[in-house]
Amino acid sequence: GAEGSTLMSYFSKNQIQALKPKITFSTLRDLQCPVLQSNDLQGKPEESCSTEELFEWLGAVMNQVSLDNKSSSFLSTYCCPEPNTVVEKAFLCTITGFIIPEKIIQLLEQLCCYFGEPKLAYWLTLTVHGFADSPVSWRESEHGFHKGGENLYNFVIFRNLDYWLQMAVGAHDDCPP
């Protein structure tokens, strides 16, 4: 009856809105960035930072945590790993919504265009988060939400098109081979 048609119009309207990804851009000025070498995953003192240090730094940047290690900060005394360099301008783009793998590949290809002329970027990253309470993870396993619901992977792409792939899942989840 009337109740059913009202429900249908409600869901069709809201589903259409849910499928439109929300995009936000921000410019980060004078950002301290770790120095990376594509062929050096472990990092070297005074030469480059490790993959773990980069991953931690990315978390701080994405959550807009200050990197200046002020003792007066109640939130964080985190500072950028050494060695680092100050980048005058960095762009952070966040896309929230249901994004199919083909779109992620497309995004990666578009990001690689930044290595064309003028060659300003040494490396860039693309992080893909699954929803923390997603019912599935990789392989055949259910996704365990026990603590933080970690469920993400991160590409670090270098100017020479070498790349790193980092993955993080909860302790009870399967990881891809």
UniProtKB/TrEMBL annotation:
Q: Which GO terms describe its molecular function?
A: ribonuclease MRP activity; ribonuclease P activity
Per its UniProt record, what InterPro entries does this chain match? Answer: RNase_P_Rpp40 (IPR013893)
Q: Name one Pfam family in it.
A: Ribonuc_P_40
User: Which cellular components does GO assign to this protein?
Assistant: multimeric ribonuclease P complex; ribonuclease MRP complex
GO BP, sorted A to Z: endonucleolytic cleavage in ITS1 to separate SSU-rRNA from 5.8S rRNA and LSU-rRNA from tricistronic rRNA transcript (SSU-rRNA, 5.8S rRNA, LSU-rRNA); tRNA 5'-leader removal
- Lineage: superkingdom: Eukaryota
Identify the PANTHER family for this entry: RIBONUCLEASE P PROTEIN SUBUNIT P40
Name of the protein this chain belongs to: RPP40 protein
Species this chain originates from: Cnemophilus loriae (Loria's bird-of-paradise)
Q: Which classification does the entry list for the species? A: Eukaryota, Metazoa, Chordata, Craniata, Vertebrata
